[in-house]
Amino acid sequence: MKKYIIAAALMIGTGAFINTTMQSCTTLATSDLGLSIIKRLLLNGIDKGVNVYSNRDAFLQNNMVDKALPKQLRDINSMLEKIAPSLVAKERAYIADAAVYTVNISKPILVNAVNSLNANDVTRIIQGEKGTATLILKEKTSQQLIAAITPKVEEQLNQYGIVKSINTALSGSNLLGSLLGGNKTSVNSGGLSQLASEQLVNGIFNIIEDYEIQNSKSLLGPLGK
Questions:
Q1: Residue 35's pLDDT is what?
Q2: What are the UniProt keywords, alphabetically (predicted)?
Q3: Which residue, 113, 119, 194, 201, is most buried by CB atoms nearer than 10 A?
Q4: CB-count burial class (<10 Å; 0-12, 13-18, 19+) for 163
Q5: Angle, nearest 10°, between helix axes 162-170 and 85-115?
Q6: pTM of the model
Q7: Which of 98, 1, 108, 8 is nearest to 53 (CA)?
Q8: pLDDT in tens, 112-147
Q9: Distance from C-alpha of 102 to C-alpha of 156, rounded to nearest angstrom
Q10: How far apart, in whole angstroms, are the C-alpha atoms of residue 55 and residue 73?
Q11: What pLDDT does 144 receive?
Q12: What is the C-alpha separation between 201 and 204, in angstroms, rounded?
């Protein structure tokens, strides 16, 4: 009988220890220190993304930016590759220029969102999968970023006349309607700018998420992550 009592006491004691440990991690995570660590993680990721976007060559060579290419724009480029491959290279180069042109608009929006993180956000980050911090940042800023940079992206693309060049190359193509919907026979300037803006926004989130995942263990480990 004594053996059972001792075993039960050990189990209760172990459970209390685990519970206390979990509570202490949660308390630390939601403390000013925990919030500061998470903010620093995201701010470092933002800096990495800004460095890529501020450098035309770095932008063009970054595969996480390429992965962010919207399906419609990828389909248009696949079509262009068959009839005017040089236009795809020009389009990518002009979007890279737009990245340089708009990065100083995006950065303050991202930084402000990081600085507005609260205890509820931190708890969700600690309890979530790797990449949750970036996901929350994306939820808070994605639409705002697209709205803020799209006019500038359109201005940049129109400056180079890329939309007119694409339409000239695709004129008479019966595939464009199936790509863009309806009976469209030309690429709309605003539509291309919207797609390019989506790529810019999703690309920088890909870079931030990659930084978070690569560094979460070393930086968030003390918080129980």
A1: 87
A2: Signal
A3: 201
A4: buried
A5: 140
A6: 0.80
A7: 98
A8: 999 999 989 988 988 888 899 999 999 999 999 999
A9: 10
A10: 22
A11: 97
A12: 6
